[in-house]
């Protein structure tokens, strides 16, 4: 693992403070990360379910953390593709959490997946795959 949880959290606080709006990082491994979001009324869409953009943001930031655990603190690693399948309705006003795993990390591209879960629902509520572009090392 290239960074510790404390180093990554300090980096995110400084370089990407808006990321905190998408959840709290609570676990970091070598190519993996987990984040949780306490869902409130601002995260809900009409019909009383967690909005898609909220789940997409949580997935993206969680995979970003997993990627940085492998490559170090690289601010210009950016999402180039995000695909998400919404599998079932999350429980309104209950926490959701994401588990991200890097599937492949190359020199300039990386691919990972994220499962999103909701308290009160046994199976995942969403599944996402993403591709990140990383600046070439000099």
UniProtKB/TrEMBL annotation:
SUPFAM superfamilies per record: Thioesterase/thiol ester dehydrase-isomerase
GO molecular function, one term: acyl-CoA hydrolase activity
Keyword Hydrolase: yes
Family annotation (InterPro entries): HotDog_dom_sf, PAAI_dom, Thioestr_dom
Domain Thioesterase: 47-121
N-terminal signal peptide: none
Pfam families from the UniProt entry: 4HBT
Swiss-Prot/TrEMBL keywords: Hydrolase
Protein's name according to its UniProt entry: Phenylacetic acid degradation protein
């Amino acid at each position: 693992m290239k960074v510790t949880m404390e180093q990554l959290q300090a980096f995110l606080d400084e370089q990407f403070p808006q990321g905190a709006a998408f959840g709290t990082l609570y676990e970091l491994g070598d190519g993996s990360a987990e984040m949780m979001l306490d869902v409130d009324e601002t995260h809900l869409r009409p019909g009383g379910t967690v909005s898609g953009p909220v789940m997409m943001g949580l997935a993206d930031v969680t995979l970003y953390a997993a990627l940085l655990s492998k490559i170090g603190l690289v601010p210009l690693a950016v999402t180039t593709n995000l695909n998400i399948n919404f599998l079932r309705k999350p429980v309104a006003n209950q926490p959701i959490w994401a588990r991200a795993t890097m599937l492949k990390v190359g020199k300039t591209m990386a691919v990972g997946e994220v499962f999103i879960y909701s308290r009160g629902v046994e199976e995942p509520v969403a599944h996402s795959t993403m591709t990140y572009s990383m600046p070439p090392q000099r």
